[in-house]
Structure formats: C-alpha cells, structure tokens
Design a protein that fits this description.
mainly beta; 8-stranded antiparallel beta barrel; 2 helices
Length: about 190
C-alpha cells in the first residue's frame, strides 16, 4: 500500500512538473500578434501570471491538541493557474519539534485580486520529541487565499494546512494556520 501511494505521488509530481512553461508578457516581444490581439493580451482577466516567486510565512501550529508556532519558506513555479511549491517548514509545540521538506501542487480557483486556492503534497519530516526522533513521510492538504492587489512587489497569503505524519506506532496529525508574503521574481 505504501509503495503504491508513493509511486502514484511521484508520478503526479513528475507530470505536473513537466507542464510548466514560460510566457513573454511584454507585447513588443510578440511580433506574431496583430495590434488588436496585443491589446487583448494585456487586458485584465487574461492570465499572464506565469512565472516564479519566493516567500515566507509564520503562524500557529496545533498538533495533537497542543499549540505552538510555525514558520516556513517556499518557492513557487506557476503556469496557467497550477503551481509547484517546494518548501521548508518548522513547527515547535511544547517539547515537540518538526522540520519538514515538502513539495506541493497548488490549484488556483480564480484569477482575480482575491485568489482562493487548494493544494496538497508530500513532505519528509524530521520529528523530535522526548519519546522519539524519527524521519517519516507526511501528507499535506489545505488551502488558502492570496491577495494580489495590495502592492506591486508582493502578495499577501493566508493559508491553512492539515498535516499527517505517518508513524509506525501512531500517526501524528495537526493543523497549521499561517500568514505570509510572496515576492514575484521579475
């Protein structure tokens, strides 16, 4: 069961990773378009939001009914409303800590100033507590909203994630709520 799940997840990541492409957003670099098509290309509502960004987030972690803090950093490779996000996350709750290296696939639901999204993926967790120090696979599912009209050089994110660390004795689960900033690379 674990092998099948891992193979399906890796296949999904590889398929989504090969679909990324770059777009030229400046109309003067698009000589094959007529003047009418060039003006339509840059109108609001036309998605030219492909590219890369970097960012960070901070917030609250609730793991197994205990509350602590969470912090993370991420990169985003975006194309046509779908993104791949490699990221690192850290949370500390009482005497438990976890460092995670994860990869998520994000689907944007709209292309407006307020962009809700859903995402999910896998992570490798380096979990430490008084009882054990383990390195285990984790499953991540969540969503959030991105506000794109607050500034020209950054976007504001509000995010919520459910995390499940698969452990031999007992699985460890919790939710993490964060707010962060994303900086598009131009």
């Amino acid at each position: 069961m674990k092998k099948t799940f891992l193979i399906l997840t890796l296949t999904l990541i590889l398929i989504s990773n090969t679909s990324f492409s770059q777009y030229k957003t400046q109309t003067e670099q698009l000589p094959f378009l007529s003047l009418n098509q060039r003006s339509t290309f840059n109108k609001p509502g036309v998605d030219v939001s492909s590219g890369a960004s970097m960012g960070f987030n901070m917030g609250v972690a609730s793991i197994e009914s205990e509350v602590g803090f969470a912090i993370g950093a991420f990169a985003e490779l975006k194309s046509r409303g779908i993104s791949f996000l490699p990221q690192t996350n850290y949370w500390n709750v009482k005497k438990q800590t976890n460092f995670e290296i994860a990869g998520l696939v994000r689907f944007y639901l709209t292309k407006k100033a307020l962009m809700p999204y859903i995402d999910g993926g896998l992570g490798i967790n380096f979990y430490n507590s008084q009882e054990s120090n383990v390195t285990k696979l984790g499953i991540i599912a969540g969503g959030g909203v991105e506000l794109t009209n607050l500034g020209t050089s950054f976007n504001l994110l509000f995010d919520g994630k459910y995390k499940l660390i698969i452990n031999d004795k007992a699985n460890l689960s919790g939710v993490i709520f964060t707010a962060g900033l994303k900086f598009p690379l131009k």
